[in-house]
Amino acid sequence: MKEVQTLGVLPLGRPTFDVAFAEEKLAAMLNALSATGKTLIGPGRLLMDGEETEAAIRDVAAAGPDAVLILQVTFTDAVATMRIASAFDKPIAIWAVPEPRLGGRLRLNAFCGLNLASHALGRAERAFSWIYADPAEARIGSELAALFDGARQVSPLTGTPPSGDSQAGQRIAEGLDGKRIGRLGAHPDGFDTCRYDAKKLSGLAGIEVEELALQGLFDRAGEVPDAALSGIRQTAEAELSGLGDVDQDQLDRSLRLKAAIDAIRQDGGYDAFAIRCWPETFTEYGGAVCGPVSMMGEARVPCACEADVYGAATQLLLQAAADAPVFLVDLVDMDADDNTGVVWHCGQAPVSMADPATKPTATIHTNRKMPLLYEFKLKPGPVTFLRLSQARGRHAMIIATGEMIDRPMAFTGTSGVVRFERPVADVLPDIMNCGLEHHMALAYGDHGEKLLDVASALDLPVIRL
Question: What residue ranges are annotated as transmembrane (predicted)?
Answer without folding.
Answer: none
